[in-house]
Amino acid sequence: MGFKIIVLAKQVPDTRNVGKDAMKEDGTVNRAALPAIFNPEDLLALEQALRLKERYAGTTVTLLTMGPPRAEEIVREGLFRGADGGYLLTDRAFAGADTLATSYALSTAIKKIGKFDIILSGRQAIDGDTAQVGPQVAEKLGIPQITYAANVVSAEGGEITVVRRLEGGVEVAKGKLPMLITVSDAAPECRPRNAKLVLRHKKGTAATEWSAADVDADPQQCGLSGSPTKVKAIESVVFQAKESKTLDSSDQAIEELIVELITNHTIG
Amino acid sequence: MSNFYLDNPALRHHLHHPLMRRIAELKERNYADAAKFDYAPSDFEDLLDSYERVMEIAGEVIGEVVAPNAEEVDHVGPTVVKNRVVYAPGTAENLKVTTQAGLMGLSMPRRYEGLNFPLTAFIMASDIAARADAGFCNLWALQDCAETIYEFGDAAQHQKYLPRVCAGETMSMDLTEPDAGSDLQAVMLRATYDEAGKCWRLNGVKRFITNGDSDIHLVLARSEEGTKDGRGLSMFIYDKRDGGVDVRRIENKMGIKGSPTCELTYKNAKAELCGERKLGLIKYVMSLMNGARLGIMAQATGLSEAAYREAVAYAKDRKQFGKAIIEFPAVYEMLANIKAKLDGSRAILYETSRFVDVYKILEDIEKERKLEPEERDELKKYKKLADAYTPLGKLLATEYANQDTYDTIQIHGGSGFMKDYPCERYYRDARITNIYEGTSQLQVVAAIRHVLTGTYLKQWQEVYQAEKLRPELQGLQKRVAKLVDVYEKIVPLVADTKNQELIDFQARRLVETAGHITLSYLLISDANRDYELFARSAEVYVTLSEVEVAKIQKYITEFEPDSLKFYRHTEVA
User: Fold this and answer.
1) Lowest mean pLDDT among A23-27, A42-46, B5-9, B151-155
2) pLDDT (0 to 100) of residue B290
3) Chain B residue with minimal CA distance to A47?
4) Which residue, A95, A151, B349, B467, is most buried by CB atoms nearer than 10 A?
5) How far apart are CA B132 and CA B255, in angstroms?
6) Which residues pair with B272 in a beta bridge?
7) In this predicted model, what pLDDT tens digit does every residue of A130-159 receive, in sequence order?
8) Does B48 touch chain A (CB under 8 A)?
9) Are B314 and B426 in contact (CB under 8 A)?
10) Which residues on chain B are in Cβ contact (under 8 Å) with A54?
11) Which residues of A246-265 are buried (b: 16+ CB within 10 A; e: fewer)?
12) What three-state secondary structure class fits A82?
């Protein structure tokens, strides 16, 4: 028996080399200045989806991405590796979205796609490093989630088994479907593009495009207007070991940390 | 992120050679598949784009996965467990990833799940693979055995085996035996027809079989009881799924250590006859061998490429006497010579593969319809050229791979002798290339006919010398024309003696002269299409050729047939 899998994937600027034009005046990332790539952990999520497809006949893998029209290439890259199809959420109304507005938009699109069994996504994107979108989508859809997956072991009898790689060890988690899983960089590499699939999908439309209206999204909750987060500045920061600080997990220690971070304007 | 296709503009240059348009048109039967397969091209531009994209995938997979695995594969190597070969973990990963990338069965027709790519594209992928891991290149390139099944097998065999090759099953060609190496007429492995089982059975031993535990084997065996020569040999297909062939041991080799070289025992192994009886050696193996020789040329070229890059990187980095050693003439001369030999090897590699492409595709078309008279002429012309260029190219490219890897170690000095740098692996890997699939000495035997019958001379005079060149290359072309004059003098000096022993003795010198001239012309032609990329190599190669040909001329002109007595082996009491 097969599963209906949705892979959340993001086209990200390659932040491994951040120049001075990396940020626009309004505080958002200047995507035009950086080469666009498939977010690395989302590729790992795709690989997990494709492995499930190989293992369980009848499984389909659908990509969902949000971005400018050129983000269609994310879906195409997925097709090149064996995905069955994909959707691109693209609309000016979505522009400037933070994680909250993004997860709202994605969840409306997932509702529009309809029935699904598994949603896979990368733990986090290399442009924002928030690791919030996956969990927020699960919350908005009202489904359980397993984060930091290194490997989806099996999905049988309505139950999915996942190995999580955590600090200091691994944990095997089980849960009922439908389930959202975020995949960490401990997961195996994604397979390469396949020659025949590349030739098959190199031309033509790769993704079904949806606007905010197509997915019945509330414009107030989309894009900049739906985004409480404001980016103050982007810079390349090299942390030094001497600046590190070890805290215990008591409420008092956490409160002190928060106060310190607010005081020095790291957050808030 | 390394992509072994994108970082090497010479490959793109050869993929875009003018003859590719004709090859594509023939291979695609005027793009008839476009209506039947959603991944078939609709026109030449679309097709070239497809070639590019697939080479890019090959370059990425090989650069990102195969190359980083190479050192460990060389150290670990394959093992034999319970009569089966277990690849080194890196080799297993390489096979898995190249299969996932859809790079197996590149040249098979689409109806068998292939990509219908010309041989030239397949050879290019081998060239790329060898730069990363020459041993892996063997496993990869053996998929070319599928060509033999396609050419000579029947429809049922096509259906049964070709899609499996495209899905990643590996192949081997089981020819050599303990007493049948260069002389395959001596093959003894017995094939008998089992009336009860309605199949052939194989019994005997094969030795030095590359990837001998493959999924699908082509086996040369003696089907005609009582015969002793090549006419009693037939070609068989052995399917590993049927069982009956065990790996007795694998060889401990100097190089290409990732590629298992097996000794096989056949115990009543079930097999299918491929093609007609008695044509095994005289027709099928000859065809198989020509394909394999082209594969080894690609392997050698890839090794020269790897060596050159390693040599340049080291020479730029290494400082002695206050400067980078690349600034010393003694070093940069070696580098320029390596590069010229590399570019020359690649020039004849792709020239040959294009010739093979044209005639093989026309032969394939001939199975579908009668050829037009001009197509028949085209087939004949290119078949002859392929026949002449294959041994010439194999001789030169593999000898150059040896020289290039040797010089690369020299540039590294003492460090090159250590296992710390990959150049010692390249050197060990290169050493087999001028031995297997026919030694250099046997390539000379095959090529000398074309020296004596004028095949090379005709091609130079009618095609290369007639090429319209940019002004800055015309001087070089004149210098090569002078070498042709020398060639026209020394060939009759040897041939007219009618002394077969003397002809055999001088053959290598004549063939090498033909090689120097051919590569010179080809490099000039490459420089004519891309001056920046090839002009320096053309200049360096022509200069090298002038020196070599002068030596050969002196040797041949001054050699007295009577002097052979000093060379014949005699035991001194």
Assistant:
1) A23-27
2) 84
3) B100
4) B349
5) 14
6) B237
7) 888 889 999 999 999 999 999 999 999 899
8) no
9) no
10) none
11) eeeeeeeeeeeeeeeeeeee
12) coil
Query: For the segment B528-568, what is each residue's pLDDT rounded down to a tens digit?
Result: 999 999 999 999 999 999 999 999 999 999 999 999 999 99
Q: A201 to chain B: nearest residue by CA?
A: B39
In this structure, the dihedral spanned by the alpha carbons of residues B23, B29, B31 and B36, taken in order and rounded to 10 degrees, is: -140
- As a whole number, the mean pLDDT across chain A is 89
Taking phi over 0 as left and psi of -120 to 50 as alpha, with beta for the rest, A223 belongs to left
DSSP B104: T
Amino acid at B482: K
DSSP class of residue A168 equals T
The chain-wide mean pLDDT, for chain B, equals 96
CA–CA dist B18, B25 (Å, integer): 12
In whole angstroms, give the CA distance from residue B481 to residue B460.
9
State the DSSP code for B371.
Answer: P
Both tokens of A261, joined, read 């971070």
pLDDT band at A239 (very low <50, low <70, confident <90, very high): low
Torsions phi, psi of B308, nearest 5? -60, -45
Q: Which of A192, A198, A200 sits opposite B38 (nearest CB)?
A: A200
**Which of A46, A189, A193, A197 best probes binding to B when mutated, by most B CB atoms within 10 angstroms?**
A193
Whether the Cβ atoms of residue A38 and residue A8 lie closer than 8 Å to each other: no
Distance from CA of B133 to the nearest CA of A (A): 19
Looking only at the bridges linking them, the beta strands covering B261-274 and B233-239 are antiparallel
Closest CB to B50 among A191, A197, A199? A199
The conformation of residue A192, written as its DSSP 8-state character, comes to P
Q: Cβ separation of A200 and B39 shorter than 8 Å?
A: yes
Beta strands at A169-176 and A159-166: parallel, antiparallel or unpaired: antiparallel
Alpha helices in B318-439 (DSSP H): 329-368, 373-412, 423-430
CB B70 within 8 A of CB B90: yes
**Amino acid identity, residue B213?**
D
Beta strand residue intervals within B304-345, DSSP E: 319-320, 323-324
Q: How far are the Cα atoms of B197, B319, B340, B423 from residue B326, in angstroms, in the given order?
A: 68, 9, 16, 17
- Structure tokens that stand for B94 in this block: 């390489």
Is the CB of B228 inside 8 Å of chain A's CB atoms? no
Query: What digits encode the pLDDT tens for the residues B108-119?
Result: 999 999 999 999
